[in-house]
């Protein structure tokens, strides 16, 4: 049974191990033994040694299958153990007070502050690459050094220096990922190795303890939160990620949960915002229940107004997780129950100006401003089925209850069985205020002179011939008049907000059965992955209308009214801010997914220093979905029309079969360095929501074309080669890579009733990524990571006018990213910093709207008051940089020269104070 990363190798914790022991003669460290072993498995030798020395053997890791030749040793116990464990991948701890021999896997890959010398200095041990990977590997014993793919491992210490609210923020620590985390705690974008921004987590399989969060990769970060129960994060990029999981051809990110052990652990963390309203409590308790049963229980609860405070509680809720583990001679069984009930806010783009050097429009602070407001509560949406009332502070409500069961069983010394099972009930209701094209940012005075307003005034004048009628604005909440619209909020602008509602409800069953066969020079892995998803409601967009608002922080709704000469309101054009109950589309549907994958992975070690692996996966997918088209309705009690689902519902069923393959290898140059390479072809399967989008945007009524369906699989091809090197005081990895996505759909929509604009474009990315750690002095540590990539569009047919965009930089993705993270240790404290540079990007395919490069500085300090009390202060974006993560994804394929535009900026400076108690 392979050891999970949740076992903490820190020797300070091992010394606290409390075991029951029988009365025995006490031995000491200098006592000499004569040990005779006739040959066999390492486990047999250890058991024989423990019996001979009258010590208790505690195998906290695994039973090793290494074979030993006959030997005779006369030496102290420590020397005998050193000889037995040489080159085994295991280490020992002798607890003479407890009369225990403790055997465990060698320490995980160290990050800063993983290990401290007796004087508190940071050190890097010689076994820096010995962390045993449990994600996307065919073998149970593949270390980072021996891996044939790009690997990044984030351990507890690294996670402790990061804010755990956002999955996207954590993944900023992974080279090759472009992260757009400006949307809030959830609903963000992470793009791997040249994929354009704005695709969610597409082509990345987010996993919890080895199983996907969601099969199809739609909205995965809604159902994933990090807290003290997160023991580590493994990220595998390219290569085997296409073989050993589903819909993760570009990368696998596995969040590994805490498990109980013989070491009792209790930890509490209280976090409080210093300059904004943020309160969070995290807790963890773990330990032994009986000799063979262990538990880990933890979770969090928080409420938060947000750095861009919308005037109401933006984020509120939490989760709790219980892990129960049963360990036995031949394996381990783990049972996990997780419940998530949380509400988060999606922060839409803000209005800015000056495309050459973007800056906030007057009335909106680029660091702290938002176009959300409590004035959007209690909105009454008129539909053909009646009035629907919604509150913007409902935000994005997520609920999930998930049960996992994992069995690891060593059937024999050669055959190992692993089965992971999960069943989950997941729901999310997303309600947000969005923007559309940049041309919806309007001059307030000119808008009053627009044709539709003048028609309204002319009609009102005709109905009141004895009055002098003029157009004006009033605030919807109290009908007070805006006296000087040309100076409204210092910018003289108005805009439209577009309410977007979407509901997600599904039940998901996942099972991953794997059998490993370990021979002398071969390791064979075979498996079956089952995914069954039943959607009562697919997360399709339901655009709800158009609302006229101010352009300022926490805006209010506006009405267009007709005033008489005494400034009295005679008529009102809009309805509590609504100028329409129609949106770009109203999409509704449900569906079912059934996926079977069969895979095989072979590792061959023809030489002591060379490992070659070959993998293949065949997936058969069946999709069935029912979805309705939309229709424009006249409303009896309104002058405006509504877009709502029609009476026409269509059902489509299709099946797909695809093959993925990978070939990789690793050659170990020295004990601490290796070369690796990998070639792979993976795929992303079609998604249920594609069918609903196709017919919802197609204006179909009584029939749909035969070719309308779920689309086709997307093929991804990867090539990479890299070098890992380390010494006592430094380590680094550098990787050359090429990625091809064939093809990607680029979709843009604009205006109220317009259809989508779509292009299918091939992309090609070549680049180099790197990460390193170095001890510059005994106390001064520097780590860093980065990527330079040339990511371009290619393959647009010459027959299309857009073929002129071939060779352009992929939208929203920078060519250069760098992150430097220095830290300094003194006494019981540490100061650490992150300096991040994000290179130039483009908002549009035509590369006309450049998003400037920017630099962000984060700072933190932590101090241990006692062994059990630790204080920390974390400050983000301390220079209040205005960094633009994206332009307006809902504008045209080619940017038009608007003076003002929508864009999303990173959050301004914020500080959070932590106090942590452990006992």
TrEMBL record:
InterPro entries per the UniProt record, alphabetical: Beta-barrel_TonB, Beta-barrel_TonB_sf, Plug_dom, Plug_dom_sf, TonB-dep_rcpt-like
Keyword Transmembrane helix: no
Subcellular locations according to the entry: Cell outer membrane
Membrane topology (UniProt): Multi-pass membrane protein
Annotated ranges, domain TonB-dependent receptor-like beta-barrel: 470-878
Pfam families tied to this protein: Plug, TonB_dep_Rec_b-barrel
Record-annotated TonB-dependent receptor plug domain positions: 147-252
Record key words, sorted: Cell outer membrane, Ion transport, Iron, Iron transport, Membrane, Receptor, Signal, TonB box, Transmembrane, Transmembrane beta strand, Transport
Domain of life assignment: Bacteria
Primary residence: membrane
Family: Belongs to the TonB-dependent receptor family.
Name under which the protein is recorded: TonB-dependent receptor
Species per Swiss-Prot/TrEMBL record: Colwellia asteriadis
């Amino acid at each position: 049974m392979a050891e999970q990363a949740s076992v903490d190798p820190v020797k300070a914790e091992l010394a606290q191990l409390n075991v029951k022991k029988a009365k025995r003669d006490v031995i000491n460290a200098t006592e000499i033994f004569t040990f005779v072993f006739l040959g066999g498995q390492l486990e047999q030798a250890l058991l024989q040694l423990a019996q001979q020395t009258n010590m208790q053997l505690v195998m906290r890791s695994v039973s090793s299958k290494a074979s030993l030749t006959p030997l005779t040793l006369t030496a102290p116990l420590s020397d005998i153990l050193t000889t037995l464990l040489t080159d085994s991948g295991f280490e020992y701890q002798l607890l003479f007070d407890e009369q225990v021999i403790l055997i465990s896997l060698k320490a995980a890959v160290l990050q800063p502050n993983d290990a401290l010398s007796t004087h508190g200095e940071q050190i890097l041990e010689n076994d820096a690459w010995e962390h045993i990977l449990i994600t996307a590997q065919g073998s149970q014993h593949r270390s980072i050094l021996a891996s044939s793919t790009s690997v990044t491992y984030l351990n507890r210490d690294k996670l402790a220096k990061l804010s755990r609210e956002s999955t996207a923020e954590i993944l900023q620590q992974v080279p090759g990922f472009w992260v757009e985390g400006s949307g809030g705690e959830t609903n963000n974008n992470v793009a791997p190795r040249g994929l354009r921004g704005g695709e969610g987590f597409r082509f990345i399989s987010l996993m919890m303890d080895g199983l996907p969060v969601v099969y199809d990769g739609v909205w995965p970060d809604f159902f994933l939160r990090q807290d003290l129960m997160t023991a580590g994060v493994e990220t595998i990029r390219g290569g085997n990620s296409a073989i050993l999981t589903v819909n993760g051809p570009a990368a696998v990110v596995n969040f590994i949960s805490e498990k109980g052990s013989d070491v009792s652990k209790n930890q509490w963390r209280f976090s409080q915002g210093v300059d904004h309203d943020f309160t969070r409590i995290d807790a963890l308790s773990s330990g032994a229940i009986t000799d063979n049963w262990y538990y880990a229980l933890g979770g969090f609860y928080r409420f938060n107004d947000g750095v861009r405070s919308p005037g109401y509680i933006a984020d509120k809720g939490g989760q709790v997780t219980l892990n129960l583990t049963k360990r036995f001679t031949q394996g381990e069984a783990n049972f996990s129950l997780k419940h998530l009930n949380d509400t988060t806010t999606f922060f839409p783009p803000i209005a800015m100006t000056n495309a050459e050097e973007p800056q906030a429009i007057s009335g909106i602070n680029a660091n702290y401003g938002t176009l959300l407001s409590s004035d959007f509560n209690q909105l009454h949406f008129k539909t053909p089925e009646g009035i629907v009332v919604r509150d913007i502070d409902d935000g994005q409500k997520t609920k999930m209850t998930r049960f996992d069961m994992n069995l690891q069983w060593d059937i024999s010394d050669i055959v190992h069985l692993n089965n992971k099972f999960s069943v989950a009930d997941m729901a999310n209701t997303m309600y947000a205020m969005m923007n559309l094209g940049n041309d919806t940012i309007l001059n307030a005075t000119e808008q009053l002179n627009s044709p539709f307003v003048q028609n309204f005034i002319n009609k009102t004048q005709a109905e009141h011939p004895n009055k002098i009628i003029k157009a004006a604005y009033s605030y919807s909440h109290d009908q007070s008049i805006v006296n000087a619209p040309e100076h409204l909020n210092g910018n003289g602008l108005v805009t439209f907000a577009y309410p977007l509602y979407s509901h997600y409800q599904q039940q998901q069953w996942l099972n991953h059965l794997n059998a490993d066969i370990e021979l002398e020079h071969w390791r064979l892995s075979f498996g079956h992955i089952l995914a069954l998803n039943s959607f009562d409601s697919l997360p399709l967009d339901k655009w709800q209308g158009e609302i006229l608002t101010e352009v300022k922080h926490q805006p209010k709704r506006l009405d267009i009214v007709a005033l008489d000469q005494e400034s009295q309101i005679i008529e009102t054009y809009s309805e509590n801010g609504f100028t329409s109950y129609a949106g770009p589309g109203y999409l509704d549907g449900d569906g079912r997914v059934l996926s079977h994958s069969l895979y095989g992975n072979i590792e061959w070690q023809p030489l002591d220093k060379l490992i070659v692996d070959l993998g293949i996966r065949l997936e058969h997918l069946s999709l069935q979905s029912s979805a309705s088209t939309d229709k424009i309705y006249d409303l009896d009690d309104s002058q405006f029309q509504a877009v709502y689902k029609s009476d026409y519902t269509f059902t489509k069923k299709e099946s797909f079969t695809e093959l993925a393959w990978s070939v990789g290898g690793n050659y170990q140059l020295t004990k601490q360095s290796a070369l690796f390479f990998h070639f792979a072809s993976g795929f992303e399967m079609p998604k249920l929501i594609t069918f609903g989008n196709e017919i919802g945007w197609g204006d179909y009524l009584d029939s749909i074309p035969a070719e309308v369906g779920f689309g086709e699989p997307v093929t991804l091809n990867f090539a990479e080669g890299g070098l890992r090197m380390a010494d006592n005081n430094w380590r680094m990895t550098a990787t050359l890579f090429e990625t091809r996505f064939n093809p990607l759909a680029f979709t843009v929509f604009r205006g109220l009733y317009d259809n989508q604009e779509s292009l299918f474009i091939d992309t090609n990315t070549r680049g180099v990524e790197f990460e390193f750690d170095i001890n510059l002095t005994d106390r001064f540590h520097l780590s860093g990571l980065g990527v330079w990539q040339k990511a371009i569009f290619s393959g647009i047919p010459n027959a299309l006018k857009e073929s002129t965009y071939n060779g352009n930089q992929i939208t929203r993705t920078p060519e250069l990213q760098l992150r430097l993270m220095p830290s300094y240790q003194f006494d019981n404290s540490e100061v650490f910093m992150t300096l991040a540079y994000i290179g130039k990007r483009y908002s549009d395919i035509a590369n006309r709207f450049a998003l400037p490069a920017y630099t962000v500085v984060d700072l933190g300090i932590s101090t241990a008051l006692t062994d059990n009390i630790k204080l920390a202060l974390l400050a983000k974006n301390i220079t209040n940089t205005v960094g633009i993560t994206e332009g307006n994804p809902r504008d045209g394929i080619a940017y038009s020269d608007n003076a003002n535009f929508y864009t999303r900026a990173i959050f301004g400076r914020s500080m959070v104070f932590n106090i942590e108690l452990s006992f």
